[in-house]
What we know:
The chain is mainly β and 1434 residues long. Strands 12, 15, 16, 19, 20 and 21 form a 6-stranded mixed sheet that branches. A 5-stranded mixed sheet has the order 2-10-9-5-6, with no helix packed on it. Helix 4 packs across helix 9 (1411-1433). The N and C termini lie far apart (109 Å). Mean pLDDT is 74; it is low at 1-40, 438-447, 1054-1087 and 1119-1409.
Amino acid sequence: MAARRARRLLGSLCIALLFAQPPPSGAAARSGSRSLLTESLVRTFTPFYFLVEPVDVLSVRGASVIMNCSAHCESPPRIEWKKDGTFLNLVSDDRRQLLPDGSLLINAVVHSKHNKPDEGYYQCVATVDSLGTIVSRTAKLTVAGVPRFLSQPEAAAVRRGGSAVLGCEVAAELAPLLRWERDRRPLPPERRLLQLPGGALLLSNASDADAGLYRCALDAGGAPKYSEEAELTVLPGAEEPQSLALLRPPSSLSRLPGQSALFPCLAAGLPAPHIRWTKDEQQLPTDGSGRFQLLPGGTLQIQDVSEADAGTFTCIAESGNDTLEAQAELTVQVPPRFLKSPVNIYAHESMDIVFECEVTGKPPPTVRWVKNGDVVIPSDYFKIVKEHNLQVLGLVKSDEGFYQCIAENDVGNAQAGAQLIILDLDVAIPTLAPTSLTSATNDHLAPAAAGPLPSAPRDVVATLVSTRFIRLTWRPPASDPQGDNLTYSIFYTKEGINRERVENTSRAGETQVMIQNLMPETVYVFRVVAQNRHGPGESSAPLKVATQPEVQLPGPAPNIRAFSSSPTSITVTWETPLSGNGDIQNYKLYYMEKGQHTEQDVDVGGLSHTVTGLKKFTEYSFRVVAYNKHGPGVSTHDVAARTLSDVPSAPPQNLTLEVRNSKSILLQWQPPPAGTQSGQITGYKIRYRKVSRKSDVTESVGGTQLSQLIEGLERGTEYSFRVAAMTVNGTGPATDWVSAETFESDLDESRVPEVPSSLHVRPLVTSIVVSWTPPENQDVVVRGYAIGYGIGSPHAQTIKVDYKQRYYTIENLDPSSHYVITLKAFNNVGEGIPLYESAVTRPHSVPDPSPMMPPVGVQASILSHDTIRITWADNSLPKNQKITDARFYTVRWKTNIPANTKYKTANATTLSYLVTGLKPNTLYEFSVMVTKGRRSSTWSMTAHGTTFELVPTSPPKDVTVVSKEGKPRTIIVNWQPPSEANGKITGYIIYYSTDVNAEIHDWVIEPVVGNRLTHQIQELTLDTPYFFKIQARNSKGMGPMSEAVQFRTPKASGSAGKGSRPMDLGPDYKPPLGGSNSPHGSPTSPLDSNMLLVIIVSVGVITIVIVVIVAVFCTRRTTSHQKKKRAACKSVNGSHKYKGNSKDVKPPDLWIHHERLELKPIDKSPDPNPIMTDTPIPRNSQDITPVDNSMDSNIHQRRNSYRGHESEDSMSTLAGRRGMRPKMMMPFDSQPPQPVISAHPIHSLDPPHHHFHSGSLASPTRSFLHHQLSPWPLGSAMSHSDRADSTESVRNTPSTDTMPAAAPELPEPEGPFLPAEEEPPGPPTAHVRPSHPLKSFAVPAVPAGGPFDPALPSTPLLAQQGGSHPLQAVKTASIGTLGRSRPPMPVVVPSAPEPQESTRMLEDSESSYEPDELTKEMAHLEGLMKDLNAITTA
């Protein structure tokens, strides 16, 4: 200990002297000593490998066998052996013993039919106790069985000079031990005698000496075993022609690289057969100079087989006019070979590492991993990634050792290994990060310098918990509150497991991380460690977090099979998934044509389906996904099947005829189009006839070649030909008849051709184009043309071309040089008379050095969402910018998202170009260049333009629905933005229904403002399946809906505490008038209710009296009868016929109902075409009842559609006049007119009594009367505007989704959806800017009972753009049901807790008016009063 202290002190002093600083203390001193001693603490890798590994051995019974093995290590390893995976006990074994070098000796191999103790797979295991264990490749010991002949030789006769085959078949392992005897003497080695690998004897070119008794012998240890004898008789040679026959056709073989292959092809016939071989329809060179040799008898021998030799070999035997073919496949199998072997790795505990292993072979090898001799079983921490690599997560000390990658296939196996050393945490890894360390752990590799270490991070919390990921956030350590230079390591593990994993932050100063790939419903323990340049500091306290449970979805359907049932159909079958995750509702079968990228699907109710309408002889892939009540499960793997073949459905293509001479015509064609062949083309059928005799048709069936020479035709006769393709199913349609006429006489080739009739040359810079016409005398055969050329002499070089060719380009000539060219026609007799021509090649052209000026003033004018017009000017043109030459312009454009986008270009001949096909809402940059002849300019300066927005063209993604914990009636909907938003998302619409097949206008609608990606929906019915769809909205409109997502609410409601809705008590239940609990849990006494009622009635009466007195007073002051008349006319029509641009004419705030004493605001919106109204929407089907549409038309003309409650005998204007349900509307115009009023919600006087009458839309001031009628409590929702600043402008004031029932209703603001950012210090208040002398009223509210819960969702109200307009001509845009009539449907809107602060009275904002204006308004009010009297008397 003293020495250790001394070393630490010495290290500290050395550092102090080096840097001329005071000696560090504490942690800094320890860190300094650690960095100085790092090199001495790092352990080195130990070489440990096999020098010799066992190989496959073939033995016979009773023989001795040695399996070789030798290993190298610094410490002598201990060698053990495994047989078939089990260790051998060699101590007590008298037949098996371990040799000093580690090899295994097996004496007297035992093998019988029922006892085979020595045959099997052997593996050598080497162990060093302090280091680890490695295993060798496995080697197979095969023991030849009891000698037995599977077939015996049979007597045969062969003619002199002919060929014969003597059969003798044995088991494959005995074949190398077989030999032949004649007359009981070994056969002499002759090339005419060939023993095949299977044992048969081939005899070719027989002579009298070959006659005798033949037998085969097996030398399998001990005395040989002989077959029966068979006599071979040699007959005299035949004089009559014998038909061709194949005595021994070739058979398919499988070989390893380096081995030899024999393909027999023994044929008999007279004349003697000629044998030739082709590979993949290419002629094989069998002259004996290469690896392919043709042995006597026609046998093909391939020496030193390679992978390239694999293919189809065809033996073609020809005898006279007879031809026979036979095919065989050669398969070359390759043992496993390592392309990339594992490498040694240093690591620290908690790191993640990857051992890489890349192998090749044929068939493709399988890979398994072994650690210290034991097979690695994949688990949560040991995973096979990227096909063959081994990933170890969260290293612990016991993971040290040797890891081996073992690759196996049918023809061999191989192994490669590496060592893993885990260093102490205070020892830096000595080298740079190897590729086998994951990115999550590379930060551990930098050695630390001396200095203070950070303290523990503070306040570690999980801000987002899902099924398979958790987001952690924290604050920087107290030792470094800024934390800008700190990185963090997050260590985590499953609870109860010691193996810890680590994840690092991606950049310095980042205080959050997303931990992914977790298991559902599992408890994890997290801790965070900060790290500065001196090293890691203290760890935070452990934090336990449990992931959420995962919805139980079906597993993959097992045993999926596909088979073709006809040329156009395939049947797919499968079985029920084994996982018990609920009943399977249906299956979806996906299928796709091979090579295509578009997948089709079909719903299936059973366990099989036949897909029809497929292409013939085409391969398809299939997969199946099972669905249960939670949704789609795991897909099966793809299975492939090919439809059956059929006759071709189209004729061959491009049939051409070439008359060769007076008796033959050459036909050439192309196969039918690929999609019409309907199978493998097996041949072509050629039909031909004389044109003069159409009934006399001759057929000729050819092979798969694409040409045929028809010979034996008559001279000077016209023939017609047609060709049809054939498959195994029959012959397809034929081509049209094509005619050609044979020559009257064959051409003369007894003399040379005459001189060509013409020769033309066209010189270029480095080439000359030569063209000519044939000799005028066409009776002499021309086989080709000889072109000679050279500088000054035509004899320098000569080129020969085909007789059909009429031009040729002489390349690689010198510029500015004089060439002489000669042309001669030739045939088999010789060359004809030459024709001479000369030409001088052109000089090199010097390009114009002066570049052109680039275009200037490039401008981008946006025309639409996908079109931008680019304009520019050209300074090299005259002032009028008129183009008179052949110049053109090149426009290029690109967008920077993604960053690697390539430029697109287009050419234009004018000074503008219309770029189309652009993406909406995307910034593009444009530049232009000009080209004139060979001159071009540089690119101009760039212009930028952003395309207009477009409605979203894809639905929101990843829609999920979960239940809120502790609130079974509340669900949370989450989603992701659409992939093709085409603009800034301004909101979403959530549709939900209990019937997925219902019309979309019958679904309940929940608007969501802004770009929020989550929303709560409350007051749902328990144990009920709901279906949800989401639609995104931007400034241009609505996008498509997402697919329906199903969710069933829980069965048990639990206690209806704070924030929960009371139990539904049925339609006959009537809540008490007072004393009931509000939906938010705040009780209200009967005394409070009575007091509120008195206040409402009193204020209403006083208000009416004041209004009547003022009206009478103002009316008497009116002196002009004409003004009265105009005011009266305005009062009749003004409430719904204001012009949108009439700023002086303003409607009154409210109108008065004598019977009900209620105050109602009149619509002041200035837009003549409102595009949105709000209507309560039912939560479930129980809330919906019919509405009586028979209303008085006068009432409808005076009413306006407002949020709130209507009485039984009244309804919204739109609903009454059109006979349709009011619809929830959305604004589409992002530029609203100037607002008239700014509204903040006034909280209810009586929160427990927010009821609505079934089937009616009640007036806000009459909600008290309804509360005796309605059994349904209605909560009051609080929007973002509750938190908005009270002095906020109208444009930035969103409205609420539901106004409190007992407060007077206010017109909706006209601005777009803009959620408020801050919460005012005081309670929310309604501010009304009166637009006429009569001022608005507001009733003070009692403080709400419950505290405000900011965690609950708020539903902002949809904004309305309206104007003074005739209500009879209202135009609305409904979501999902534009222009469709439907009955009104009331809905319970989600409620939210209310603030505790009490509301205050509305304040007046204007006080002075002109007398003229006051007179007009009073006349207007007088007209309203007359209308009211008429309504009440009616």
